[in-house]
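Aim 2 progress update. The chain analyzed this quarter is reproduced below.
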Amino acid sequence: MAGTLPAAAPAAAVAEPQRLTVDLGASEGPVMRGANGALYGLSDDGVPSDAALAPLKITSVSQKPEGGAQHPNGDALSVSRSFFRNGGGEINVMMQDIYAKWPYEDLGIDDYLPKVDKIAKQVAADPNSDRFVYIPFNEPDQIWYQLGVSDQKQYEVNRDRFFKDWKTVYQRIRAIDPGARIAGPNEAGYHTRLLTDFLTFAKRENVLPQVMTWHELGSGSLRDFQGHYDTYRSIERDLGIPPLKINIDEYANRRDLSVPGQLVQWVSMFERNKVYANQAYWDAAGNMDGNVVRSNIPNGGWWFFRWYAGLTGDTVKVTPPRADTIDTLQGLASLDTSRRQAQVLLGGSTGDSDVVVENVSRSVFGRTVTATVAEAAWSGYEGQHATPRVLSRTKVEVAADGSVTVPLRGMHKMSAYRIVLTPGGSGAPSAASVPWSASYAAEDAAVTGGEVRTQGTVSNANGYAASGTKDVGSLNQSSSKVDFSVTVPRDGTYDLAVLYGNQSGAPATQKLSVDGASPVTVTYPSTENWTYRAKKDLTVRLTAGPHVLSLAKADAEVTLDRVDLTARTGAPSASYEATLADIDGKPSYDYSSSAGVGTGALALRDGEKAIFDVYAPRDGYYTVVSRASAAVRLTLHGERVTAAPGRPLRLYLVAGNNRVAATAGYASVRSLDVSGDGSASGTLSYEGASATLAGGAKLVDSPYASAGSYIGQLGNSADSTAEFTVRAPESGRYVLVVHYAHNDRRDNGHAYNTDIMSRTADVRVGSAAPRKVTFKNTWSVNDYWTLGVPVDLRKGANRVTFGNASGWAPDIDRIELGRVVGRP
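Predicted structure tokens:
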């Protein structure tokens, strides 16, 4: 409680911290993780990558039928291979996406039925047919049937037409696939009138859906969904219908997607009510609706969903400061008594909060707990986000009333936070190392030759997210610049992160200067559009005190959102707690000591496994250290290596997420510690000009390629190939990193979807069977991304051949190879 100032010195009252209460004694049932799905979250087998997909434990996705004309990719059966091998749950088949136009062409039920037959036969023939759900109609309240009309008489005419068609299509699907699960009615918005009539009809005619679906697509849903849900369940009860599974198969707006502090508000209300939910598809397919950068790189939204996937046990009651209120502090929590862990995910508000955890059982946690707090910040839709920084590790006594209070100070509205409670044990955890950092909004800087614009807000919910809802655009004059006034505490090197947008169709540049000194060129890769944020990471050397950082126009227009400055205290590093890792088997959890990361240790025995998600800012070598009581075996990119306790290994990681599995005969593991910037020392590098080209593939000059040229017109026939001869210093498993570009698209005329397409290449090493690899669109032909492919090489010369007999392969700038286990 703040003290009272003397009357002679009046001051503004200090706001009391908000209070979010978690009751560990009030179970809401097993953690379902139902709200982590996405509409068109996958575009191809391999987009997103296995390493980006598996950690999220996706329960459902919605995709188009095989061969559907609505979009160029995202076919349900095609993407099912990667979805199911990475632990995915079920796939909703959006059957009307067989049509090309939006809204769908209304050619009558007689036109639709043959398409229904084809889709049902394809799905029924699939070996995983029981994991698909048919959605026969999409948004019938608006499309084809106009069920949202206010005139009751016209509504009844439209309703009866829809009901007749629903019954016809339902029975048609069941005739082909007797065990089919069918979902509907799939309204664009919740309508009590329609659902009452629909359930009454469907029960009477024996055509009830197995899954109830509707959409929640307005910012008002954060306020209204609970009422919708409660009313719907009351309709079921009144009609004597047992509770149906619910999937809110489109939710959230552009301003929500990728933003941890917004996503936690949506997810908490869906998980609380135990419904499934898929994020809406507003932009491009294949990035889990704004949570995966490129194919394999996490952003802040990905880390939030990774935390959500890590909840185990039961969810428990959370009481926020204001329930069912738009853009406020919300949260969800879990308790796993077998693991002796409680976790709280929260966010959506600025300022200070106290998280009060009640009914902390002494029989589960003991007299003290370790509270570990971390933050997942907003890094843009396409901005990479390193492993969330641990803000604090604190050993706390459980109060006499069984409660623990965890204070959070200076929260950011767009961030989500995770609190983990584990038994305290002996000793004390290592203090969290939190470097100095500050953020500066572009709209608050001195702007010359540009415009401050407002983006996504409650009233413009489908505007793109922006820090503080504003950015600075139209920086297209020769004099355009933004001057940021910053102050840093000490001399040193600072990481500078710039959130930006670039739709120029090529890498765009600005000139960065400090206090008017000679500028350096900053190059920004392309983004989907000027409001689809990405992040550029730089470093600057600054002396203690005030400075002006200027970003001025160079060769193209770049939109600026904000810049972040963070003091660099050494090579980037992170500790991955073993007791928070994914597991196979039933390892035991040991909290006898709070030393190190503070979350205890995981006791691994034969047949048990811990899987760590390890982030790398770029492709290259990193130092990996196992904090364990005995040697463990680490598996990465298909290579296995023994890690002695405390002894560093040099391992090759690809940019983004890397799944590292640990096994042991017996070892007590505390953490896997990873550090480094991604060294290229010891890697092999070959420019496109060194390849032998055949069948029309040719070298094309380009100022954007690393050596001034790339391999183009590769593929589209069996004879068109590019063959590199690489010389491996020793035999073993390597990562082949391909630097590539392409910008294939098929514009279907959608008002909001960007229909990018992927390319594939068959990669062959020596005489081994080729491997088909998928390369996501890079937004422009002049932007080169990387994709890592594990390969086996023998010592000496090896032929690595790229081709594609049935379509164009991507343009290839160069390739690199690094042995998975590098020499110290």
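The longest strand covers residues 666-679. The radius of gyration is 27 Å. These observations will guide the mutagenesis experiments scheduled for the next reporting period.
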